[in-house]
Design a protein that fits this description.
heterodimer, A: SH3 type barrels, Porin, 8-stranded antiparallel barrel, 5-stranded antiparallel sheet, 3 helices, 54% strand, B: alpha+beta, 2 domains, 50% strand
C-alpha cells in the first residue's frame, strides 16, 4: 500500500509544478498584451464640471492633491476598478473617480459614459465563472465552475470539484443545466439538473478499498445574489445519486456557498 | 376593335390562371395549417405620413472609450514556511488577484515547500516517518481580501508611495504526506506600490488543516511569511 502512496505523490507533484509553469507562462503573456495595449494612443477628454479633483491613489481615502479646471483637457492613462489615472496638460498624474469622469466631454463635445457593470449586466451576462466550497455528504468540497447563458433564463454549466474527506478523497466533474425563473431579481433563485462522474480514493490508513469512479446524476436549487460590479454570491443545494456497482445507489447531499464573476 | 378583343381573350386565361394559382397556394397553406397563422398576423405598419425626410445624421457615439483596465494583479513570491512538527523551509509560489472594488479583491495562489524532520526523527535517528517525496508540501487556495488600511508612505521630501494593509482569508487544499487536506488560510499582508502598476508584497499567512499524521487527530498551524512582487494588468 505504501508503494501505491509513493506512486500517487510522485505523479501529483510534477503535475503541480507543470500547472504552475503553465500559469506563469499565461500570465506573462497577459502582461505582454496589456503592455502592448498601453502603448496605444491615450484618450483625451475635457473637463466640463467647474473642476476635476485628482487623488494620489485609486481610493476614496487618498488625499486630493491637484485640480484641473473647466475646459482643460486630460489624458486617460488607465482604469482600476472605478478609478481612472489621468494626466493633465502640465503632465501631472492623478486618480479620478468614475462619477467625476462621467462629467467630462469627449473630443467632439459629447458626453462620455464609462460603462458601469450593474445589475442589468448581471441579468444579461453571457459568461460566468466562480468558486464555491461547502459540505459534500460529510466531506469538504471545493468547486470551480464556468457557465454560459443561452438566454436570461437558461444556462449550461461545467463543474470541477475536489472532495476532501476524513476517510476518502476524490474529485467530481459534472455538466448541468440551470433555470432561473426571475433573472432580473437581485436575489435570483434557480433550479438545476445535471450529470457527471465522481471519483473516490479511500484513504489507505483507515479504509482498505480501491479507487472507484461512479456515474452520478443530480438535482438542486440555489440563489445567485448580485453584489457589486462583476461580482456575485452564490449559494446552492444539490442532491446527488451515484450509480454504484454495488447493490444500492448512493445518495449524497451537498451544500455550497461561494462567489462568482460574470462577463 | 378586333385587336382589343384579342387582348381581352388572351388576358382572361392569364388572369384566371393567376387566380387559380393563388387560391391553390392558399389551399396548400391551409392544408399544412399555415394559412391561419398568416391571417392572425397584425397588418403591416404603414409608414407614418409625417416622416418625409429620412434623417441622415449619424448617431453620436457615446460608448465607453477603450481604456486599459488594470484590475488583475499577478506575481510570484518566496519566503519561509513553518510546517508544524516538520521544521521550516523555503516556500515559493505564484498568485493571481482580481480587484473587484477599491477595497475588495479575490486571490488564487499556489505554493510549494519541503518538510524537514520531526524532532523525534532527529533525536531517535531511526527510520524516517515519511519518504522524501511525501515530504513535499504543496498547496493551492482561493481567498477573499480586503484593503483595510490604504495609505501612503513618504521617502524623503519628494517621494510618496501608495500602500495598503490588507486582511485575507480563504479555502484550499494542501497535499502533504500522500494526503490531500482541506485547508483554511487566514492572514494579513502589506502591498507597497513601487509604481502604479508594480507592487511589492509582504504577507503572513496561517494554513490550518486537520491531520492524524502523528497519531492523534489535531489541527495544525503552518505559518508562512513571504515577500512577493506583482504586476497589475
Amino acid at each position: 500500500m505504501s508503494e501505491l502512496n509513493t506512486i500517487t505523490t510522485r505523479s501529483t507533484s510534477p503535475r503541480t509544478r507543470l500547472s504552475l509553469a503553465v500559469l506563469l507562462i499565461m500570465l506573462s503573456q497577459a502582461v505582454t498584451v496589456s503592455l502592448a495595449r498601453a502603448a496605444d494612443e491615450y484618450h483625451t477628454v475635457s473637463v466640463a464640471d467647474p473642476y476635476l479633483e485628482m487623488h494620489t491613489g485609486p481610493g476614496r481615502g487618498y488625499p486630493k492633491f491637484h485640480v484641473v479646471e473647466r475646459g482643460e483637457a486630460v489624458e486617460i492613462l488607465k482604469r482600476r476598478t472605478d478609478w481612472f489615472l489621468v494626466r493633465d496638460a502640465d503632465g501631472v498624474d492623478g486618480w479620478v473617480d468614475r462619477a467625476q469622469m462621467e462629467l467630462t466631454l469627449g473630443p467632439a463635445g459629447q458626453n462620455i459614459e464609462f460603462a458601469e457593470t450593474d445589475q442589468q449586466a448581471f441579468t444579461d451576462s453571457r459568461w460566468e465563472g466562480g468558486v464555491l466550497a461547502g459540505d459534500f455528504g460529510g466531506a469538504n468540497i471545493i468547486s470551480i465552475y464556468s457557465g454560459y447563458s443561452l438566454n436570461p433564463h437558461v444556462a449550461v454549466e461545467v463543474w470541477g470539484s475536489q472532495i476532501l474527506g476524513n476517510f476518502s478523497n476524490g474529485w467530481m466533474a459534472s455538466v448541468n443545466v440551470v433555470h432561473e425563473t426571475w433573472p432580473e431579481w437581485r436575489i435570483s433563485p434557480f433550479f438545476t439538473l445535471g450529470a457527471g462522474v465522481i471519483h473516490t480514493k479511500p484513504k489507505s490508513t483507515i479504509v482498505q478499498g480501491e479507487d472507484r469512479t461512479d456515474q452520478a446524476a443530480h438535482a438542486g436549487a440555489g440563489l445567485r445574489i448580485y453584489a457589486t460590479r462583476r461580482f456575485m454570491l452564490r449559494a446552492e443545494y444539490k442532491s446527488y445519486v451515484a450509480f454504484t456497482s454495488r447493490d444500492d445507489n448512493e445518495e449524497v447531499e451537498e451544500w455550497k456557498v461561494g462567489f462568482a464573476f460574470f462577463f | 376593335m378586333e385587336s382589343r378583343f384579342r387582348v381581352l381573350f388572351l388576358a382572361l386565361p392569364l388572369v384566371l390562371t393567376m387566380v387559380l394559382l393563388l387560391s391553390g397556394c392558399a389551399a396548400t397553406k391551409n392544408l399544412f395549417g399555415m394559412g391561419e397563422e398568416e391571417q392572425s398576423l397584425p397588418p403591416a405598419e404603414a409608414p407614418s405620413p409625417e416622416q418625409v425626410i429620412d434623417p441622415e445624421v449619424a448617431r453620436r457615439d457615446v460608448r465607453e472609450p477603450k481604456i486599459d483596465t488594470e484590475d488583475f494583479e499577478v506575481g510570484a513570491f518566496v519566503g519561509i514556511m513553518s510546517i508544524e512538527d516538520f521544521g521550516s523551509d523555503v516556500v515559493y509560489g505564484a498568485r493571481l488577484a482580481y480587484h473587484i472594488t477599491e477595497g475588495l479583491f479575490v486571490e488564487a495562489a499556489a505554493g510549494q515547500s519541503e518538510a524537514g524532520l520531526t524532532s523525534f526523527e532527529e533525536l531517535s535517528g531511526g527510520a524516517p516517518i515519511l519518504s522524501d517525496s511525501d515530504r513535499e508540501f504543496t498547496y493551492y487556495n482561493l481567498s477573499l481580501g480586503y484593503n483595510l488600511f490604504p495609505g501612503e508612505v513618504f521617502l524623503g521630501e519628494g517621494r510618496a508611495f501608495n500602500t495598503s494593509l490588507y486582511l485575507i482569508g480563504g479555502l484550499g487544499s494542501t497535499t502533504f504526506a500522500a494526503d490531500d487536506r482541506f485547508t483554511v488560510n487566514v492572514g494579513a499582508g502589506y502591498r507597497f506600490l513601487l509604481t502604479d502598476s508594480i507592487s511589492l508584497h509582504l504577507d503572513f499567512r496561517d494554513h490550518l488543516f486537520d491531520t492524524d499524521l502523528l497519531g492523534t487527530e489535531k489541527t495544525v498551524h503552518n505559518i508562512e511569511a513571504h515577500v512577493g512582487m506583482t504586476v497589475f494588468f
